[in-house]
Amino acid sequence: MGIMRTLQLLILLLPLAAAIQPSAQDPVPGQRFRHLKWGSINFLHTTDKLGINSHGWHAGHLQEPQYSADFGDYLSFTSHLRNIAEENGVDLIVLDTGDRAEGNGLWDATDPMGKYTRNFYRELPLDILTLGNHELYNGTTAQNEFLEMVSYYEGFSQISRKFVTERQGFRIISFGFLFNFTRNYKNTRVKTAADTIKESWFQEVIHDIDVDLFVIIGHVDIHSIEFTQIFEAIREVHPNIPIQFFGGHSHIRNFRILDNKSTALESGKYFETVGWLSIDGIKAREAPDNTDNTSMVVSRRYIDVNRAGYQHHLGKNATTFDTPQGLLMTERLAKYRAGLGLDRLIGCAPQDFSLSKHIYPGPQNWYSYLEEHILPVMVYNKERSQVPRFIFINTGSQRSDVFKGPFTYDSSFLISPFTSKFIYAKDIDYSIAIHLRDFFENDAGPYKSSDKSENPLENRQQDTAEVDIQSSPLVNHDQAPLTHSQPRHKYSRVIGYATIDDAGTDGDDTIHIPLKRYPTPNVIQGNASFPEDWESYPPAKIDIVFFDFIAWHVAAGLNEITGTKDYSTEDFLPYMRQEDTMTKLLLDYVAKYWGRDC
Ligand SMILES: [Zn+2]
């Protein structure tokens, strides 16, 4: 009877068998994989997804198909992994470490933002989750996170500090942390890790002696002081109990060994990566007396988010991979996307632009294009239009490369999702303003975004065989030209992460060719309404226009350059309307200047 019902469902869903979103590309076939190693307890980790990967990219591109699986595929993947765990009598814990908000049309284009996205998250079989800074910038987002997510998991959160795993009987104590974040909206409160670990409730919980494993998840870089402080606090009480950390926020694949019974995993960004970690040889409640923690073995993998890889790790193929629930989720995602018009064509990108694969400044660099073409035309105020201006935006406000061909409504959110407003400082001496850019470059600031999306660590790669896209044939849109140029190779090699971490160079599940990245500035500058010979005969005073996100640093810069305390964020005024976000300006520019013939 059960089988019949399943069959019926499958038949009904057959037209959806291509489960990734219709607009996504297929991953490169014939890739070379490293297997997942199972232990007695296993973890599947996602972080910094910033919306759901529902793939707005149409353009064929070497990298993007590698990350083309969607939430429905992930649901199928986790459900098969759960079955494998069950068959083998081991445990599987599924976790997410936050920044689910923003960065994708399905989140950003709804009112209120995230209206649909949270439902999809709630359907994932998550065992432990925490939130990130992106859930806390906006008051409404923070409130809805509280009302819809916290309440949904409430019964669960009461027990989540301590639970016993289903099969091996590990007694786990778990906590969720956020980095020492200070830009949260006023309806939320963030306590530092250093203060939290001193609180009596925390000390009470960690003094529990009936525990086999601590699982600490955090929206925190795994090398952060926060994790070190938590580690030391627990180690003081339990010198021998394994502590497993899962981190995020800095958008890298990374693995840290804290001591011989404690490691930390960070699993990339934007749902390009699913992290896998298994632990073997540690003591569970039910374990025989001779088992202790001395033979603990930890294994980690960074899984590229595509169906070929998922299927490989499960020993499944395209016909046996999808589950009815996974297919349904894929279908619903496609329906919501269609309802929001996310695949709507806005214009055609005339060429590829990249954030860091092409040299800055340069004709294929997206920041250069913004500086020279988009900012001067789009950032404009009627009353001040004649006043020369410098327009500053932080580079972290841009999230993704632009590919030649269709630019959709969704592309605008993928590339520039933030809702920062343009504000300005009026009539600043040119002789002062001209030094601002140097100030930004030498200032720590949050310029590469709150999430350090261009973090140099992200580009840690093995130096062998690094491909420079600027001087390589890979710049075309053919699939896997490297396969053709190296016919003796049994496997295709694709461009991607070549991670180096504390455990070595074998973490990536797919063997990649790393891509060369060029350095980018903290802040870029567009110039507008200057007379032709302005550099020789500069105007006495100009306007400084910038994102409110960096307002504090603009004031600090002006004060430092003038050696005064004359400037404060209070003096800055709105330059454009509230609704004129970079996302909207980008859409308007593309619609007006890029044509629709592609
Ligand atoms: Zn973050």
From TrEMBL:
> Pfam families, alphabetically?
Metallophos, NadN_nucleosid_C
Signal peptide location: 1-19
Report domain Calcineurin-like phosphoesterase positions: 70-252
Q: Where is this region: Disordered?
A: 468-487
Putative 5'-nucleotidase C-terminal domain span: 352-553
So which domain of life are we looking at? Eukaryota
Q: Which InterPro entries did the record assign?
A: 5'-Nucleotdase_C_sf, 5_nucleotidase/apyrase, Calcineurin-like_PHP, Metallo-depent_PP-like, Nucleosidase_C, Pesterase_C1039
An annotated GO cellular component of this protein is: cytosol
Keywords carried by this UniProt record: Signal
GO molecular-function terms, A-Z: hydrolase activity
Question: Gene3D superfamilies per the record?
Answer: 3.60.21.10, 5'-Nucleotidase, C-terminal domain
Give any single GO term for biological process.
Answer: NAD+ catabolic process
In its UniProt entry, what is this protein called? (Perigord truffle) hypothetical protein
Question: What organism does this protein naturally occur in?
Answer: Tuber melanosporum (strain Mel28)
